[in-house]
Write a structure and sequence with these properties.
The chain has 191 residues and is α+β, with helices and mostly antiparallel strands. The chain is built from 5 helices and 10 strands; from the N terminus they run αβββββββααααβββ. The protein is 31% helix and 39% strand.
């Protein structure tokens, strides 16, 4: 009897799911979000805040926050232009400004942004000497510019970037902290 009911109810449940998927649904895109509507066989389209109707059988909506988001790049050791080993950490504040590029052009934008920021940090350290890194006022816009060029393809804008820790490695007495958590943290903002 149980097998008979399973055989009967299985297709019936699938039929109900199909009927429900043909009924229009709505997605509420909040004021601090932007969305992308995918329609089968057509290009993706940006959708802004408001109530957005869609047919689940042929459409899908993905939303993302467009407000400021924080990305932390943990301590990593790189070599400077003058061949010194430096351990640095980074905090980046960014916002999604082109949701289509963020969602459509990248397989996993969240993970990719972290990897691209770490790559930009490595390149920034490799292109500068230890003394250049110490003179942080010279790099006020350089950190933001370098990260922006790395993150452009994700459709985001870098609002703030700061080196939260910087220490020279491989010295006779261990690491010497240039600046970090126990000192005044330096901010680098877009002018």
């Amino acid at each position: 009897m149980g097998e008979f009911l399973s055989a009967l109810l299985g297709p019936l449940i699938q039929l109900v799911e199909l009927i429900v998927s043909c009924i229009p649904h709505f997605e509420i895109v909040r004021c601090n979000e932007a969305g992308v509507r995918y329609t089968r066989g057509e290009d993706a389209k940006r959708v802004g805040p408001g109530v957005r109707w869609y047919l689940p059988v042929i459409q899908d909506i993905e939303t993302h926050h467009t407000c400021d988001q924080v990305l932390t790049v943990t301590e990593q050791t790189f070599e400077t232009k003058d061949e010194k080993q430096v351990t640095v950490a980074l905090v980046v504040v960014y916002a999604i400004v082109d949701v289509l590029r963020y969602e459509v052009d990248n397989l996993d934008a969240d993970e990719g942004i972290g990897e691209a920021a770490a790559g930009g940090l490595r390149q920034l350290v490799a292109e500068n000497t230890l003394e250049d890194l110490r003179r942080t006022t010279r790099h006020r816009a350089l950190v933001v510019e370098k990260l922006q060029s790395e993150l452009d393809r994700f459709g985001v804008e870098v609002r703030v970037a700061r080196l939260t820790d910087c220490a020279v490695m491989g010295l006779a007495h261990g690491a010497v902290r240039i600046f970090g958590a126990e000192t005044n943290v330096r901010f680098y903002q877009r002018d």
